[in-house]
Amino acid sequence: ETGVTQSPTHLIKTRGQQVTLRCSSQSGHNTVSWYQQALGQGPQFIFQYYREEENGRGNFPPRFSGLQFPNYSSELNVNALELDDSALYLCASSRVSSYNEQFFGPGTRLTVL
Amino acid sequence: EDKVVQSPLSLVVHEGDTVTLNCSYEVTNFRSLLWYKQEKKAPTFLFMLTSSGIEKKSGRLSSILDKKELFSILNITATQTGDSAVYLCAVRTGNQFYFGTGTSLTVIP
Q: Which of A54, B8, B31, B99 is deepest in the core (most CB within 10 A)?
């Protein structure tokens, strides 16, 4: 069984740029959630995707957007990057029937200069 | 506003000690409470609790939920250096999980 993978591992961008982060779900999982974890903080829920549709969203502005593909992989896009967007971005996948059991990927460390 | 608060923020103990980590919450539409261990990047699942008073155990770790007082504790007995990590508490409401800031545990040999 393949675990959750994310790419890239690290990324450095400048203010105002756009970034795309990628996540491949664990085999058999059809739900993907994205989280932002700032240094010293717990993960904050950005949004969840199920059946290629956004199925719940946290308190993040519209410049944070996502996609889910038919193979259940997902992308997180952030436009007009700000310094405060610097964080670890975590993706978690689960089966919709057992949503509590989320399996996290290793994350993408984004630094905005 | 939904929130999850963990205490203490950090803890340093010696191998063999027993520790208790706390998690209190104020949320609407509570569905479950989960504990995770985060060593480097990916949090790994420890326990899920939905009912009050039922202890979950896994080896030296155990956890219990009190839905009346809105808190949970995670106990680790006979701590080992491999227990050093950040322990995260999360509460599920609907499709969202609210995480606390975590407790950073350091176990000294």
A: B99
Q: How many residues does chain B have?
A: 109
Q: Is the peptide bond before A70 cis (omega within 30 degrees of 0)?
A: no
Where residue B8 sits, what CATH number does that domain have? 2.60.40.10
Mark which residues 57-76 of B lie under 8 Å from A by CB: none
Query: Is residue B58 assigned to a domain?
Result: yes
Q: Is residue B109 part of a domain?
A: no
Whether B52 maps to a domain, the answer reads: yes
Is B51 an 8 Å CB contact of chain A?
A: no
* Residues on chain A touching B90 (C-beta within 8 angstroms): 42-43
User: Chain A to chain B, count of Cβ pairs less than 8 Å apart?
Assistant: 57
Residues of B within 8 A of A58 (CB-CB) are 96
- Most A CBs within 10 Å: which of B38, B44, B95, as the mutation test of the A interface? B95
pLDDT digit string, tens, across residues A3-59: 899 999 999 999 999 999 999 998 888 899 999 999 989 999 999 999 899 988 999
Supply the range of the domain harboring residue B96.
3-102
DSSP-derived secondary structure for B2-43: -EEEEE-SEEEEETT--EEEEEEEE-SSEEEEEEEEESSSS-
Domains: count for chain B: 1
The verdict on residue B20 lying in a domain is: yes
* pLDDT per residue as tens digits for the range B1-28: 889 999 999 999 999 999 999 999 999 8
Q: In what order do the strands lie in the sheet with A74-78?
A: A5-7, A19-24, A74-78, A64-68
